[in-house]
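Homework help thread (please don't just give me the answer)

Our assignment gives two proteins as sequence + structure token strings and asks us to describe the second one. The first is just a warm-up. Here they are:
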Amino acid sequence: MVRAGGRKGSGVSARAGSEDARPSREQVVFGVSGLLAAASTCPALPRPVPSRPGPARLLGQDSKLPSSVRNTLLELFGQIEREFENLYIENLELRREIDTLNERLAAEGQTVDGAELNKGQLKAKASHSTSQLSQKLKTTYKASTSKIVSSFKTTTSRAICQLVKEYVGHRDGIWDVSVTKTQPVVLGTASADHTALLWSIETGKCLVKYVGHVGSVNSVKFHPTEQVALTASGDQTAHIWRYMVQLPMPQPTADCNQIAGEDEIEFSDKDEPDGDGDASSDCPTIRVPLTSLKSHQGVVIAADWLVGGKQAVTASWDRTANLYEVETSELVHSLTGHDQELTHCCTHPTQRLVVTSSRDTTFRLWDFRDPSIHSVNVFQGHTDTVTSAVFTVGDNVVSGSDDRTVKVWDLKNMRSPIATIRTDSAVNRINVCVGQRIIALPHDNRQVRLFDMSGVRLARLPRSNRQGHRRMVCCSAWSEDHPICNLFTCGFDRQAIGWNINIPALLQEK
């Protein structure tokens, strides 16, 4: 995600010219490839037998499947049958072309302009024609079969992973997303527009706007037991502020399952959410924090609460992480050792453990369980910036990197990863579904993928010309107990998205 000459964190504008565009360092701080062989590559497909039971005949048979599932399956098999029928017709046409070429080559082999064509010339001519036809056959066959598989996977993925709600109101890219651990459950977003917003998950309405920072807000985390938020900023501070929210009545939502479109559509800037319609303009505003943590000499890129909520940890571009007493704002420890800027920090949900990530390709595990001494372990498992490392409830750490890999580690033996996930794009701030142990991977290429802890790919969240992220996806956050949305993502397209992931169906497909 971080490239030479550029840096994540925020920007004056969230409109990137292409998916490979990266925000600059300043933006983070201040806000933004003979003939018989050819024929053999595409064997003739058998013509469908008219008497076999097709989808229409299946309708009259008894089934214990729910009607919605049955209709979906019938539609899928109908699509597959039509694709294979088209393949069969194309195959017949290609075979006719082969016969025509055979006849023409046989005629040309006897006389060409009254002269006898020698064997070498005929062989070269036949070889050239064979090569062209072979390529055409291969291309047609691959494209058709790929379309069948893609259609099946896309429809299945959409049935399991559904877009429920879009949260639009920020005027610049959103770097972080988080969900409260207390009631009422609300969504928090941190943006390059210098604000943090709290949202009603059900209605998508902005509930609270925090404007206390004078730089990009790079992360937001909620206190484990109180209505208190912790934000980190490009203004070199972290703020702790209290909020009070009253949830509005939920409104009916559109069925996003009905949205259709191809999976890979390019977008122009005009397709991005319109920042001029500021959904946060009429919500309550908080301007002053309870306390400000000011010990860093550079951008504070992330912050998190230690278990219990009495202490907080911050990570900065000054190459240090700081541990604070929340009540007094006192600096308890300055954690040094990273050779380059830090990119993320995360705390263990039940133990006094902290993991920090850095551009120096390492992540470090800091142990504060013994009050008299804190120990540190350095882990070198990546070849590029470690964008995030997070704990699971058990003894695992999951790390993501700009080297396009995600690795799962065992805390008891961190010499080598127990699983490695290789992807096609840089990985940003990952999150793990604690109960089901599913990793959500947000990517620079606008995709979000789901994997299990053994590295098996489970799904890719749907993207089309009418739904999904239009720019780099920066962060993911699970809220597995929420009945409407159990996964949230945010990105440089200035929107956060709430998803409903059918986890039992997802794991059953695996």
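The one we have to describe:
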Amino acid sequence: MSKKKGLSAEEKRARMMEIFFETKDVFQLKDMEKIAPKEKGITAMSVKEVLQSLVDDGMVDCERIGTSNYYWAFPSKALHSRKRKLEVLESQLSEGNQKHTNLQKSIEKAKIGRHETVKQIKWPKKLLTDGLIIYLQ
């Protein structure tokens, strides 16, 4: 007897997104409960939970029209959100690099006119972590 392994939550989410991206259509919950098990192997019982997690994460849009909820996600929206995230991360990286260079310059300025003693030279060779002293070579 072969046992069928169930899908993980991430696999279900990815397969659900594939449905939206491949069809480029708008669905109701009952439509997704019919389509997902047939096309992607997602159990009908977990479709609502997976869909709600995608809505909560902003990957799928949901709109209530009358008494029905409609769900959709288009590839262009996913691309734009990734581009925005990339721009934010790049700006954070450049800010971090700028801070790093400023701190390096201030360290160099602080070193001017100072003389290091033997004790100060030996101290960086020790590293204090978690209450343990580790001697670096």
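TA reply:
I won't write it for you, but here's a hint about the kind of observation we're looking for: The chain has a mean pLDDT of 82.
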